[in-house]
């Protein structure tokens, strides 16, 4: 896919997860936030280890926030 389309879809799913979270549906927001990672907003042809450090940090922080939100969502569901 085109990098511009990936960026658009990534941003769309992140925004959608924020909107859904504001409506109180935590697990749907977490799933949308996880789906956003499928659409890598950076150059997909470049291996992860060869990317600039800020891009690596961006994606690692995204995954950490995803797992924290998943843990929170599971905690409030139980």
Describe this structure in words.
The chain is mainly α and 78 residues long. 72% of the residues lie in helices and 0% in strands. It has 3 helices and no strands. Helix 2 packs antiparallel against helix 3. The longest helix has 25 residues. The termini are far apart.
Please name the defining characteristics of this protein.
3 helices, mainly alpha, 78 residues, 0% strand
- Residue-averaged pLDDT: 94
What is the distance, rounded to the nearest whole angstrom, between the alpha carbons of the first and last residues?
A: 39 Å
Assign an overall shape. globular
**Count of separate DSSP helical elements:** 3
Helix content: over 70%
Radius of gyration: 14 Å
Element order: H for helix, E for strand: HHH
Give the arrangement of secondary structure elements.
Elements: H1 3-22, H2 26-36, H3 53-77
How would you sum up this structure in a few lines?
Helix content is 72%, strand content 0%. It has 78 residues and is mainly α. The longest helix is centred in the C-terminal third of the chain and has 25 residues, at 53-77.
